[in-house]
Design a protein that fits this description.
Blueprint: E1 8-11, E2 14-25, H1 36-45, E3 53-63, E4 66-70, H2 84-90, E5 100-102, H3 108-111, E6 127-131, H4 132-139, H5 141-146, H6 149-164, E7 169-172, E8 175-178, E9 181-185, E10 194-200, E11 203-207, H7 215-218, H8 232-249, E12 252-254, E13 263-269, E14 272-277
């Protein structure tokens, strides 16, 4: 089978590949602390021809004898994404080869592709690994009863996924979740929003989940949050803290909404952050 090349980086013995699930659309009106016209101007200045388009990445990690998928894309829910499975095959990766799924959080654009249209699991041999607070939040009937009509659908999607993988579901609180992969709590976006720090032979990379949705806006303006954030103020604080850490350590970043290049580093100049996409290894 011929394979296509997808953006890929190394961190020691780990190889990390960005696999696109496609795009979703989110109104710039969803952003807080910024006027939509200013947000649109920043998007156009960064070369974003469709300012409301948000790219969805998933990541495949090879290392320690494992084939790991981090997040599962939207799976076509709400006409979002849905390209993960086809792109995995184009990358030469069969769904049955995935042995572990690490979940940053359980919003639909991250778990929709983990089950198929009939509700069956899309990755039959995979263990699903998620923060215990994330699972607890979406399974809580009180949270469901208080949810808005829009958010209620998110609960049903998350529950379908957790139910599908219930016999292969492992939760964690903190620390190392797999050899060389450590969970990093990144609160604010959801109850158990988690990044994954890969460390091998003195090298490292961080998959930071949904720290940004519009990277060309929120990295320059970390105070800008989005309506999808459960706690916008906490999410903004987490973003600022992480941008400071990533820039000072020169850390390689992978993010689900970082854009098609998939990988970047954060540069700080005179107190302002900027995004530098990483060229392929």
């Amino acid at each position: 089978m011929s394979t296509l090349t997808f953006p890929s980086q190394r961190a020691g013995d780990f190889t990390i590949t960005a696999i696109s699930d496609g795009y979703l659309t989110a109104s710039l009106d969803f952003l807080s602390n910024i006027d939509p016209s200013e947000a649109s101007r920043m998007q156009h200045a960064a070369g974003q021809q469709t300012p409301c388009a948000v790219h969805i990445n998933c990541y495949v990690v090879h290392g320690s004898g494992r084939t790991i998928l981090i997040d599962g894309g939207a799976g076509g829910i709400k006409q979002w994404g849905g390209q993960l499975k086809a792109n995995l095959l184009l990358a030469g990766i069969e769904p049955s080869a995935i042995d572990t799924i690490l979940l940053t959080h359980a919003h639909p654009d991250h778990v929709g592709g983990l089950v198929d249209a009939t509700g069956h699991v899309a990755f039959p041999n995979a263990e699903l690994v998620a923060h215990q607070q994330e699972v607890k939040f979406w399974q809580d009937d009180g949270n469901l009863s208080r949810a808005s009509e829009r958010a209620r659908g998110n609960f049903l999607v998350a529950r379908q996924v957790f139910d599908g993988y219930r016999y292969r579901l492992r939760t964690f609180e903190e620390g190392e979740v797999l050899a060389g992969i450590r969970a990093m709590p990144l609160p604010g976006h959801t109850e158990g929003h988690t990044g994954y720090l890969l460390e091998s032979r003195g090298d490292s990379a961080l998959v930071w989940g949904d720290i940004v949705h519009f990277p060309h806006i929120q990295i320059q303006r970390p105070d800008v949050s989005i309506a999808f954030d459960q706690d916008p103020s906490l999410a903004a604080g987490t973003r600022s803290r992480l941008l400071d850490m990533a820039s000072s350590e020169g850390l390689l970043i992978a993010g689900m909404h970082l854009g098609e290049p998939g990988f970047a580093r954060i540069k700080r100049t005179r107190g302002k952050y900027s995004l530098l996409y990483e060229t392929e290894v």
